Amino acid sequence: MVPPPAASRPGGRSSRVLAAIHTSVGELVGEGVDKITFPVVAERAGVTPTTLYRRWPDVNALLEEVAVAALTREGESAPDTGSLDEDLTQWALAIVHDIGRPERARFLRAMVSSRVEIVASCAVTDRRGEQATEVVRRAVERGEAAPTVPQILDHVIAPLYHHVVFALPVDEAYARQLVRDVLAMVR
Amino acid sequence: MVPPPAASRPGGRSSRVLAAIHTSVGELVGEGVDKITFPVVAERAGVTPTTLYRRWPDVNALLEEVAVAALTREGESAPDTGSLDEDLTQWALAIVHDIGRPERARFLRAMVSSRVEIVASCAVTDRRGEQATEVVRRAVERGEAAPTVPQILDHVIAPLYHHVVFALPVDEAYARQLVRDVLAMVR
């Protein structure tokens, strides 16, 4: 591969370049571009393909990083209301608000459609697992009966993502019902 | 559109033609063909595009029909073992066996990646809902406490499909845990 001329190279892995790359991927996904490749992203972002090849092993890794960044705000913590029921409800409602947006649903679908091999873990789910762990830890410290973290992922998070990915309707009433159901497991 | 010459037209909507179309879609999805269009399917199946335009409103409708046919065997009934726990477990294990195959996972991902608009219902989920309804009806007739059909769809089916679509591992132990969880909601 011929290296690009020095003049056209952006400032390494600066946050400005990263933001341009993320924005470009988001635009391409939003426009329904079928084949998102490093050269396509590079042209849109005004960087050289080499910038992308240096940072990500393949375009799926880039897509997944962008999806995680788009779907889970940096430093986002789970709610801390003093009650497990209310923590889970507020958390589920925030997720519905986030992933219910059309552009975020497109991100998720673009992400899964690029998957071929079984993955040991999924960055999106891992982040949700960290948040669920916080919520459960605080509930147990207060002496509340709490479902396990896998139960929360399986019975609140998975149905919400399933509905969004399959383009089935998701609303606040649905999120509240899922929380009631998972709490019924430990009552 | 110019109609194709009569000589090249296949025998209407015969099951042979339908099988060729379904097989072709399956092959194209399995090969990871990015853009499945009516002309592409038609060429592979040895039929004219008109045959496809006549039968399906668009290529997504064809993809969904093939996915449903591939994922739920014709006339497949839910197990009837005399116990709700065993019915749900056997049913969940059969689904794991079906959708855990790589080619079926590819079908599901191809199906969701083509979705743009919110759909009122999903043919795959609808079929599972009919099966869950049978299982719940029989349990109630026997006097067993049973979860609702939406609870079974949300807490057994959705997590299984979520895992397959996101390429997370799915196995028998996972299916059994989901059934235990949904039954814990009514105990």
UniProtKB/TrEMBL annotation, chains A, B:
Molecular function per GO: DNA-binding transcription factor activity; transcription cis-regulatory region binding
Q: Which InterPro entries match?
A: Homeodomain-like_sf, HTH-type_TetR-like_transc_reg, HTH_TetR, Tet_transcr_reg_TetR-rel_C_sf, TetR_C
The yes or no answer to whether the keyword Hydrolase is present is no
Q: What positions does the DNA-binding region cover?
A: 37-56
Keyword Transcription recorded: yes
Domain (HTH tetR-type) spans 14-74
Q: Which Gene3D superfamilies match?
A: Homeodomain-like, Tetracycline Repressor, domain 2
| Pfam families per the UniProt record, alphabetical | TetR_C_11, TetR_N
Q: Which UniProt keywords apply?
A: DNA-binding, Transcription, Transcription regulation
Determine the domain of life of the protein's source: Bacteria
- Name of the molecule in the record: AcrR family transcriptional regulator
